[in-house]
Amino acid sequence: MEHEIWDWLQNNYFSVAEPVLMNTSGIYPLILASQQGRSDVVNFLIEQHAVLDVVDHYGNNALWAACYAESIDCIKALILAGINVNHQNSASGATALIFAASSGRETVVEQLLAAGADPTLKTDDDFTALDLASTRKILNLLSKLVKSGD
Hints:
Elements: H1 3-11, H2 29-35, H3 39-47, H4 62-69, H5 72-81, H6 96-102, H7 106-114, H8 136-148
Helix pairs in contact: 2-3, 2-4, 3-5, 4-5, 4-6, 6-7
């Protein structure tokens, strides 16, 4: 294990012996590393067989956290590892795509769509990513897909 990753684990109160387990605050290292855009740590945790479907206190998975960080490398690593790109959180039913569309993360929206994220999924309040698109570019990307039925 690289010294930098070892330091990160220790500084965030994760076990060096069992690095994929949550810390005493109930935080999973895969989610925190994704939220911080630490693709080196995310890749290490994936190699250590981190469970991809862990969620935070809001019901968001590591992909959501990587989208929050706008970390293209973390998103790519998680997608390649097989994370569920259509995971809906327990708080509102939102997906990472809905979050990215509503918060103007254009590159992230493109990356999620290329990975097969479903633009027709709805929140508990019946909103899709298209309904919540916050920029013209995102609106155009999503409206083309929804109209074409892809």
